[in-house]
Every structure is written in C-alpha cells, then in structure tokens.
Design a protein that fits this description.
Blueprint (H helix, E strand, L loop, with lengths): L4 E2 L2 H23 L4 E7 L3 H16 L3 E7 L5 H12 L6 E4 L9 H5 L13 H8 L10 H14 L7 E5 L6 H10 L3 E5 L6 H5 L4 E4 L17 E4 L3 E7 L2 E7 L4 H5 L4 E2 L6 H20 L9
Parallel strand pairs: 1-11, 2-3, 2-4, 5-6, 5-7, 7-8, 8-11
Antiparallel strand pairs: 9-10
Helix pairs in contact: 1-10, 2-10, 6-7, 6-10
Bound molecules: guanine.
C-alpha cells in the first residue's frame, strides 16, 4: 500500500526562517530597524511556558529584539492592560503576543482587543479578524497557526483551491474560524464542523482537504479519510504512555497518523508539522509589523 507524503513542517519552517533572517539583516542595514517582539505570559501553565520559550528563542535566532514579560497568575486585569498600553507605545516593540489561555479572572477579549491592531501579530484583534473575513488577507495580520497550515496546503495543492472541498474540524477563534476564511479566500468549498456536528466521519469523508483542530488525540482515523486527501493535523495532545515500565509523555495530534497515512495523499506529522510553521509565521508577522511601522510596504523584499 502506498504511504502518504509526510509534509515536513520543520523543514519548511527552517527555509522560511532563513529568508526572515536575511530580510531582518537588510532591514537593519538599510533602515537601522530591528523587529521587536514582546511576549506576555500570565500564570504558570507548563505548555504555555514551553511555547513562549520557543517563541523567544526563535525571535532571537531571527535577529529580532525580544522581550518576555512573565506575570504571576494573580496579576489583575488592569495590570495586564497597563503593560499592553506601555508596549503599544514602545517604539522598539513591533509585535505583541499575549499567550493564551489566560487565568479565569482575566477577560481574554478585553486583553486581545487592547493590543494595537498594527502590533497584533497574533491576528486576534477585531480589526484584523474583519480584514481576514472580508478577504483582505494582504492587509490583515493572519493568526499564525492557520497561516502556517495554509502555506503547507498551498505547497501541496497550489494557491487556487477551486473545485476542492475542505473540512475544518473545530470552530475556535484561534484556528477553526480563521482557517475557514483562508480556505474560502483560496476558492475552496468550506465546511466547518464541531462537537455538535452529526456523523462527523461522513462529513470528513467528503473532503479533499482536512484540517483537524479539536484537541482530541487520534480522533481522525483512516476510515474517515477520502483516498488522496491532504490532512493537516493541528492537535498537540499529551498522552501518558508506559515504555519498559516507565511513564513518558508522548505528543500526539488529533489524527491517527498510521491509519490516515495509508489512505491520504499527504499528511503533517506531530511533532514536526504545524507547530514549527506556527512559530515561523509569528516571526513573519513581526517582521511585517516592523516594516509597516517604518512606512515600508510590509511585504518581503527591501
Ligand atoms: N495559545 C495557543 N495558541 C496560541 C496562539 O497562537 N497565540 C497565543 N497568543 N496563544 C496561544
């Protein structure tokens, strides 16, 4: 049986990051400008700490100025808003990212809407969501995970998805909804499914493109997949497994890689698929924010 092509997100991200490094050097040399990224984390969620550390490390390896603000879980909403205000007016900072989830006493919407739309490298501000949903992707900051997924889909199928059917599993504001907007903009026929969808497997079986973003380990199995489909796995689930009597944590996607590989044409692995692409898209957004702040076009180039 033929096996699906493994879409190597790590390699694609490394290639993109090389371009970002070069463009960052040019920006510094020609315009004396260094992209600045501020990452804010509130509380001590272990997964968030890992993500934030990776984001800071990647920003530095791209040649960016990078700062991290680590706030106690008990920090008041007002204090978080005050910090965002300061970062909004700090000219050395071009991108602001507040890691989600936030502690329960903080209103996520109040925080994401406080970030200046021009520094909103997460693409969570309503101005950027509005631009994306109206199809103005050139002007919007697009959320990093769906932007990375879209690049992987385009690498496999090209940028025009006319005639193709796409099924997004999950309707979150971070992934599902912006993913649907991007696919629609690329002319795919898009269905967004969620926990209340009836006979999800039958819906997914119609899809040429499947994007799984539900947070349930190995939920999508080979019998759900149309032969020849491309499958993008956004899930990062931590499974406890026992190897030689030792308990270990295994990272697993929402897709059962083995059974889906036997049916699909292409599939992203976990880890090494969507994750590295998400981080590099954050760098691309930050570089673009810096260029825009300097009155440059925000596109790649000089
Ligand atoms: N938590 C999980 N994914 C994300 C993301 O893309 N951005 C932020 N800020 N928090 C997240």
């Amino acid at each position: 049986m033929t096996q699906a092509q493994r879409i190597d997100g790590k390699a694609m991200a490394a290639e993109l990051s090389t371009k970002i490094v070069t463009e960052t050097e040019t920006l510094l040399r020609k315009h004396g400008l260094k992209p600045g990224l501020a990452v804010v984390i509130v509380g001590d969620d272990p997964a968030s700490q890992v993500y934030v550390r990776n984001k800071k490390r990647t920003a530095e390896s791209c040649g960016f100025y990078s700062v991290q603000h680590t706030l106690a879980a008990s920090t008041s909403q007002d204090d978080v808003l005050k910090l965002i205000d300061e970062l909004n007016s700090d000219i050395s900072i071009h991108g602001i990212l507040v890691q989600l989830p936030l502690p329960a006493h903080i209103d996520e919407q109040a925080i994401t809407q406080a970030v200046s739309p021009g520094k909103d490298v997460d693409g969570f501000h309503l101005v950027n969501i509005g631009k994306l949903t109206t199809g103005d992707t050139a002007a919007a900051f697009v959320p990093c995970t769906p932007a990375g997924c879209m690049l992987m889909i385009e690498a496999h199928l090209g940028s025009d998805l006319s005639g193709l059917s796409a099924v997004v599993i999950g309707r979150s504001n971070i992934v599902g909804k912006p993913m649907a907007s991007l696919l629609l903009r690329a002319n795919a026929t898009v269905t967004v499914t969620h926990s209340r969808t009836s006979d999800l497997a039958a819906v997914v079986r119609q899809a040429d493109i499947v994007v799984a973003a539900v947070g349930r380990a190995k939920m999508v199995t080979g019998d759900w997949i149309k032969p020849g489909a491309i499958v993008i796995d956004v899930g990062i689930n931590r499974l406890e497994i026992t190897v030689d009597g030792e308990t270990k944590t295994q990272l697993t996607g929402d897709v059962d890689f083995e059974s889906v590989s036997a049916v699909a044409a292409a599939i992203t692995p976990v880890p090494g698929g969507v994750g590295p692409m998400t981080i590099v898209m954050l760098m691309a957004n930050t570089l673009r924010a810096a260029r825009l702040a300097a009155g440059l076009d925000g596109q790649s180039g000089n």
